[in-house]
Amino acid sequence: MTQPLTNAPRLTTDRLILRGPLQEDLPAMTRFITSSLQLAAVEDIGGPHDAWYGMMIGIGHWQWFGYGFFTLQKPDDPAPLGRVGLLNHENWPQPELAWHLYEDAIGQGYASEAAVAVRSWAAKTHNLTQLVSYIDTNNAPSQAVAKRLGAATDGTRAPHEPEAEIWVHQKVAA
After folding, report:
1. Burial class (CB in 10 A: 0-12, 13-18, 19+), 15
2. Model confidence pLDDT, tens digit, residues 102-116
3. Cys bridge to 167: 28, 38, 65, 151, which one at CB 3.0-4.6 A?
């Protein structure tokens, strides 16, 4: 395993380890970016350069904000299962709780499990007690995760992404 690329803490759940990104995570992320049906609705995403760019943005978030995407893995297997964490791009109204699971990890409850851990950590560490998720109107699987997390939408669209609705998560105690 290479050296950590960020100062991300290591979080654990019953089934997962959430850690910062490593260089060896890039091939799995590249496979996801170049072949995922989940990203098919997002314009201008899909090439290997986009995976590298996304990884650099993730590393930058940790440096700039002290938070970002955690890479998910099982305790007995270092292979990445996906990413769950906080994003806050330029001109966004507030940080987003986001998740991207790789094909083999979909449908096993990992996104919800990791998101609960990240949401709790964000409240305690950064006083981010009210998070949102920006979810494409056609992304039923992500909407289902948001509902399992107790989030709801009134149909309001994200100003930076017109096809995404704003899903508001329940407030978490710091």
Report:
1. middle
2. 989 999 999 999 999
3. 151
19-62 pLDDT, tens digit each? 999 999 999 988 888 876 555 444 455 566 788 888 899 999 99
Distance CA 4, CA 33 (A): 22
DSSP classification of residue 36: -
- Distance of alpha carbon 46 from alpha carbon 42, whole angstroms: 9
Q: How far is CA 46 from CA 32, 33, 35, 43, 80, in A?
A: 9, 5, 7, 8, 19
Measured CA to CA, the distance from residue 70 to residue 86 in angstroms comes to 9
Q: Which amino acid is at 31?
A: R
pLDDT at 47: 67
Q: Hey, what amino acid is at 20?
A: G
